[in-house]
Amino acid sequence: MTLLQVRDLTVTYDGGARAVRGVDLTLAAGQKLGVAGESGCGKSTLALALLRLLPASAKVTGEVLLGGEDVLTMKWGRVRAVRWAGASIVFQGAMHSLNAVHRVGDQIAEPILLHKRATREGARRKVAELLEHVGLPAARAASYPHELSGGQRQRVMIAMALACDPELIVADEPTTALDVMIQAQILGLISRLVAEQDLGLVMISHDLAVLADTCDRLAVMYAGRVVEEGPAAQVYADALHPYGKALSGSFPTIGDPASRFAPRGLPGDPPDPAALPPGCTFHPRCPVALDVCARDDQELRPAGAGRRAACVRVGRTGAAEDVRARVRGQGREPEH
Amino acid sequence: MTEPQPLLSAAELRLTFPGRRGAPDARAVDGVDLDIAPGEIVALVGESGCGKTSLARTLLGLERPTGGRVTFAGAPLSYTASALKTYRKRVQLVLQDPSGSLNPRHTVYDAVAEGLRIHRYPGDEREAVAGALARAGLRPPERFFLRYPHELSGGQRQRVVIAGALVLEPELIVADEPVASLDASVRGEILALLLRLREEMGLSALVVTHDLGLAWNIADRVAVMYLGRIVETGTVEEVLTSPRHPYTRALLSVLPEATGDPLVLAGEPPDPSRIPPGCRFHVRCQVLASGEAERAGVADACRSRDLPPLSGGGGAQVACHWARARHSSGEAIPTS
């Protein structure tokens, strides 16, 4: 069953920054979708748009179908009901997202009291159950955020996201500020919860390696668009888009002689969303750009089983080498 | 084999913070030997709270050790104001968050020239600043002189911070998480810069990080720190491809690209004010918990006998009763 379907979503901020420029995504229940990209690529804007959390000045078009209902056009009362109960967000930086002057148990109970019309006693029991579920002793409900470690706070955030039994969880950089060992604990917890409760998960991160390890499918964003999408392991190990390649190449594999004393990155910086370059937005940084890339925008196109990529080299003919050969042979740019 | 004289050396270094309100003292650095040879890049890895930043600060003379000593170029570090000023010309610190360590109201030129002014640089200031910016990869340097930090990308800001460290032509830099706040594609570029500086200027570096991939990318040697002590050290190849300490093995096993089952340690690193007796890792040790240490006949030692600190330079060493027992019995150590 399709849980979430995003169709041609665009977000333009006041001031002209085109943060999201036509994104399509599909997610079924029990599936984990990773959205990867660097600062400013629009991935967090995408997360906020899914639950209509953007400022009123941002212009949003397209459709966000959650269980068949369009979040972007539903009435405010319905939006409030959908938040928490239909879909909830685990934000990055648990320290800043939790209220420092309230006990964590009360913070978890708040949506339960509001959305489930539970009694105080019922909410207290549910909080204890949720805390146990995320691996914290129920007595932790009486703690304030500052009394907890970073990993424990992130567990509280996850318990809160689960409070109203949502069908979809959007996790925005859920492990970014955490140590590797704590990160492994939290990722294990998220994967277990998704499997047990048949939830849908959209996980957003800059860390392609973590996403590839946790998610089923992966979408790589660049300058407000998905430039590559496919099964997680394939996208990580064998990216088709030059940006996907550069990004996965910048995560070294320990033990791989090719990356020893050879850190890999990508020269240049991502473009300013208010002043995007013409043609393919990646062409100024692309190591294999053709002349045509500066002129023609590249749409996502099928690229093998279950995969899509937005690159001129991934054409109907498929083979990149083929494109190059044609360019050389004819002395002009290939036709589309 | 004779070792070259280390450039920077710590011997039996201790840093203790007094406990407040009768609490026991926190032993942040608890007996560390560490050598850095000229032109060598050493990675100091460990989780938050393991004491790696305290150790780095002590090596820089920012903290006065409560025990042991720091030796630079053969002479013990003196803590008089003028001696420290001279020392800090030769050993420079690069901080982790370039946005936080640059003054937003200083231009790039002022930020880089600050060190020269403090040390009353006798030569041509403009030339020195331009040289440092160019070496840090900001070319042409004149174009950056009058820019403010907010006009630069994250990667460029980190290059400015590195240029500020390079302008006094130090012999060693201590970089605390130099790429943690940068995007993956930019990370590789900054790490490549550190490698190039070592090649061009013979610069030594101590890189403090929680990122084992970074160590694989640029370091010659690695020291793994746990609760104030170095628990395993050796060349990067030795430690990262055939780890012997259960802690190092666990850290490597939870990396996303690791093969085999992750060994997720429960809980968080214990408090440096309550270091467990015996081996400091024994309460979380998976080898002890699985009964493996019992079979090797070292379980009692793990619980009751502390291990001597590892020596600072040279070959592979491990502070683990179990690994030592296996080593001396000549048993092959699996590399998984």
From TrEMBL, chain A:
Stored SUPFAM superfamilies: P-loop containing nucleoside triphosphate hydrolases
PROSITE patterns for this protein: ABC_TRANSPORTER_1, ABC_TRANSPORTER_2
Where do the ABC transporter domain residues begin and end? 4-248
Topology with respect to the bilayer:
Peripheral membrane protein
Q: Name the InterPro entries for this protein.
A: AAA+_ATPase, ABC_Ni/Peptide_Import, ABC_transporter-like_ATP-bd, ABC_transporter-like_CS, Oligopep_ABC_C, P-loop_NTPase
> Can you provide one Gene Ontology molecular function annotated for this UniProt record?
ATP binding
Any keyword Chaperone?
A: no
Q: What is its main location?
A: membrane
Q: Which UniProt keywords apply?
A: ATP-binding, Cell membrane, Membrane, Nucleotide-binding, Transport
Q: Name one Pfam family in it.
A: oligo_HPY
Instruction: Identify the domain of life.
Output: Bacteria
Q: Where in the cell is it found?
A: Cell membrane
Q: Which PANTHER family match?
A: DIPEPTIDE TRANSPORT ATP-BINDING PROTEIN DPPD (PTHR43297:SF2), OLIGOPEPTIDE TRANSPORT ATP-BINDING PROTEIN APPD (PTHR43297)
Q: Please state which protein family the record places this protein in.
A: Belongs to the ABC transporter superfamily.
What is this protein identified as?
A: ABC transporter ATP-binding protein
From TrEMBL, chain B:
Keyword presence, Cell inner membrane: no
Q: Which domain of life is it from?
A: Bacteria
Keyword line: ATP-binding, Nucleotide-binding, Transport
List, alphabetically, the Gene3D superfamilies matched. Answer: P-loop containing nucleotide triphosphate hydrolases
Cross-referenced PROSITE patterns: ABC_TRANSPORTER_1 (PS00211), ABC_TRANSPORTER_2 (PS50893)
Instruction: List the InterPro entries hit by this protein, alphabetically.
Output: AAA+_ATPase, ABC_transp_ATP-bind, ABC_transporter-like_ATP-bd, ABC_transporter-like_CS, Oligopep_ABC_C, P-loop_NTPase
Q: Which GO terms describe its molecular function?
A: ATP binding
Name all ABC transporter domain ranges.
13-252
The entry sums up its family as follows: Belongs to the ABC transporter superfamily.
**Name assigned to this protein:** ABC transporter ATP-binding protein
User: In which organism is this protein found?
Assistant: Streptomyces beihaiensis
